[in-house]
User: What shape does this take?
Amino acid sequence: MKTKSAVLIAIGALILILTFFFPLWTIDLDAPQYPEGLGLRIWLNEISGLRPNDLQNINGLNHYIGMKVIEPDAIPELEIMPYIMIFMILFGLLNAYLRNKKLIYIWLILFVILGAIGIYDFYMWAYDYGHNLNPNAPIKVPGMTYMPPIFGSKQLLNISATSLPSVAAIVIFISILLNVVALYLSRESKNAK
Amino acid sequence: MKNISKKFLFGAFGALLLIILAYVGCNQSKSSLSGNEAERVYVDPGNYDEFYLFTSGGFSGQMGVYGLPSGRHFKTISVFSQNPETGYGYSEETKAMLNTTYGFIPWDDSHHPELSMTDGVPDGRFIFINGNNTPRVARIDLKEFETKEIIEIPNSAGNHGSPFVTENTEYIVASTRFSVPIPQSDVPISSYKENFKGTISFIKLDPQTENMNLEFQIIVPGFDYDLAHAGKGPSHDWAFFTSYNSEQANTLLEINASKNDKDFIAAINWKKAEQYLKEGKAKTVSAEYYRNYVDEKTHTAVSQLNKQVKVLDPKDCPGMIYYLPTPKSPHGVDVDPTGQYIVAGGKLATVIPVHSFDKMIKAIEDKQFDGEINGIPILKYDAVVAGEVSNPGLGPLHTEFDGNGYAYTSSFISSEIVKWKIGTWEVVDRIPTYYSIGHLCIPGGDSKKPWGKYVIALNKITKDRYLPTGPELTQSAQLIDITGDKMKLLLDFPTVGEPHYAQAIPAELIMKNSQKIYRIEDNGNPYAVKSEKDTRVERKGNEVHVYMSAIRSHFSPDNIEGIKIGDVVYFHVTNLEQDWDIPHGFAMKGMNNSELLIMPGQTLSIKWEPKKVGVFPFYCSDFCSALHQEMQGYIRVSPANSNVQLSYSLGK
Assistant: This one.
């Protein structure tokens, strides 16, 4: 395996450090009464507001439709994800050192599966928040559920919710891409021989 | 017959209508406006004004906040008067703000807003305002637009010449309008000349704590002290105070205090006063006065009674104070942006005298004196005057500056603003005001760097300018463009209370710091609840404390039983919201003092003494949410001897 590929794999591992400093996903809410914006930021290890009190304010609004309170401390995934990421970084660095293609394939497949599980898990939480509503909620619209979108925009009563991957998710994508490129480059070198 | 009379009636009505239309049309054509004035003052919906304007409320005792150029009213800041809309002066957290040595005073007469300055330019941190009647100075924080501190001024009787700040807000100065016996004593009024004295006070703003402290007073002859301004640049160390009634009359002042050709501007070197203070030249005299301030942690006003003040006597302090003779009962005293010229508004004078600071210093050095009063040397008029503005209109009162070499003087009697050139003292333009202008205001117009775009006329009389509202008419200000050679009237706008004086500042200097909420974590009010879990009701003898929370759209608790006749109930309501512009109200049926308006993260308390047996409702009085009308609760009041147990609940 070429040094070039190993460098790419090392970079792919190291840029994952950025995922600790940027959100994975953003949910922005647009409503007439919030010209200044209102939103959530989903991180590896927490869910925060776009602004300091947004989470509390969103929970306050959600109680009218009977949505459960979003309590980051009660979501176990947020505790596990940082460790998974550390593992993937170390695994990636090890691959850069060992240059073992099989392990790189394992890294790749594992990361893609983990990513898919992550998005599915996000979907399940969103489904749960959007569908399991308090039957005593003040506002009940027949047939209406409030699941936020996973990707794209959706109108929920007076609020337009837009959900998009953020910097950390893009970094993960780039990291995967770098590994694919690294494998591709080494395949080429093999053919050249 | 019937038909004819009907026709006649319609005919008469038609004719009347024509006359009215003609009159209205005529009125419109009489309007002095032509061109793009409407565009100049129109602020598109959703856009912001360029300047904040702070007007005193005059007899309302409050301060108004407006935008310029639109003249739109945003807020009335409660300062010296109770406000039952918000609970200011009624709630347990605010009522101490209005304590004085005369007891609780729920009103005053506020005249002069003055922005804090750094390097001679308004900095947007604070605005001060005087309580004219029961001498006080208030400090208002411009992050919150709330009154944070009120200091009473002892040995003063009518705090008119106040609160003017020195170049870096080192001091806020105040002079007494009325001279009185000092210390107060039971003497005949006719012994005025012998027993009555004036004082000039220097309130220090502590640069660290930003609190006010009455640092020292100067005892001065028994005149009426009117207005003041501190120097700047070369005159940084000085402050100037006008006086009238140098005749020392104690009755029919309109005649008896208008006799002398010249009264005085007192020029005080406050740096020298500080030095004498350090040297121990001041006498410590007993004088009670309150300082009320909002404790930043508990958000609760605290009253502190002070008992002493340091007093300097000019006799012991040579070089500290001089009198500049000034024609005919001078009113305003205004220092130009360079700090070189001191303009007096001799309200009965035919000219505007302008004193030169450099000439004053030279006259002092050369001892160009014309006698002295109580140890205060009187400088020779000719030795200090730089020039006189001729034909300034009748009754010149106040002058502000545009920073481009021009001064603008208000003339009350001839009801106009007169523009004149500094240095040549020539009048270059004049514009009528509607009617009888008092003060005038240019944004930063008393500072080193005026934003000379507009002058605002602060009028005393409005008569026919607006739709009539019975004998009591609106108060009003006028916006005038001063960017061209000719002043141009742009807008009339009504104000809350008399807009006695006003100050304006570019909006960007304030709005970026404007606070949106109070952080609930930082709420140190001992009666606050940080979450619904902490809400409770506690009895201490006949005192009942309700620790209540408010959040959209319910109070917790909202059912309370076990209150008895004879109980004193304190509602401590915390607004748990942390969202911008979501205040909650608290309104109790039969509440004898006021409702509460509680900002997000704030706790306010109000006292209620139930007088009737029964079940009484309370509710939120600020429309907070779609279910605002559901935001309500009940309190059961039982007879004094009842054995209903104290209980409370929410959602049971």
User: Anything to note?
Assistant: Residues 3-186 of chain A form one domain. The longest strand of chain A covers residues 159-165. Chain A touches chain B at residues 36, 52-53, 56-57, 60, 64, 138-139 (CB under 8 Å).
